[in-house]
Amino acid sequence: MSKFQLVMQMGPSPGKTISLGETEHYLGRDENNTIVVNDAELSRRHCHFIFTDGGFEIEDMGSTNGTFVNEKRTSGRYRLNLGDIIRLGDNVALVFELFGSDPNATVLARNETPPRGQAVKPPPQVAATPTPAPAAQPAPVPKPAGKVRPERRSGKRPSPMVIGCGVLVLIGLCILIGGWYYVDTYAPEYYCYFLPFLPGCP
Fold first, then answer.
1. DSSP annotation string for 80-131
2. Considering the domain boundaries, does residue 35 fall inside one?
3. Measured in Å, how far apart are the chain's first and last C-alpha atoms?
4. Number of structural domains found in the chain
């Protein structure tokens, strides 16, 4: 019973599974090969699979467009490992797997590149979430100006008694001046009566 298989990843029949019995197999365009792949890039007898030590080795048969394993061209025999990608020319690629493996679950070996001629799908682009603009800060409300209190004069107001005395003094001065004017105008003889110490009075 076969333990290994080839799954066509790229070529005339993508997804096709080819069982590898525990013997040798020839692959090419010629109908006499054990594995026939009808592609113009392949030689009539392109490569050779040899079962040895419980696994398989691959050998190029002098093909025109070459045999590549994980994008490295082979010269002589090459020991195959599970998951290796075998590219034949530019149009055919096969994956070496255990028999019965799900071809859709095949994981490419690390650091390997897909076969030439196969389009590589870029990873889906994730739309960047726009950063929300910062909320506008409300304008500061000016504080109402406080009432300006009138300055109080530091001087003390005169008391009513002082004001009254001043008024009396003013009235007395007015009476004195008025009396003086009257005596001087109408009765000058009374000068010596009221003011005997004036010069000229007897």
1. --TT-EEEETTTEEEEEEETT--GGG--PPTT--PPTTPPPPPPPPPPPPPP
2. yes
3. 179
4. 2
pLDDT interval class at 30 (50, 70, 90): very high
The tokens describing 198, both together, are 């004036």
Residue 78: closest CA among 52, 46, 116, 101: 52
Task: Write out pLDDT tens, residues 138-173.
Answer: 666 666 665 656 556 555 666 778 787 888 888 878
Computed on alpha carbons and rounded to an integer, the radius of gyration of the chain in Å comes to 64
Nearest Cα neighbor of 71 from 56, 85, 92 is: 85
In a domain, 199, yes or no: no
Give the residue numbers spanning the domain of 181.
160-194
Q: Dig out the tokens for 87 from the structure.
A: 């590219």
Can you count the helices (H) and strands (E) in the chain? 2, 11
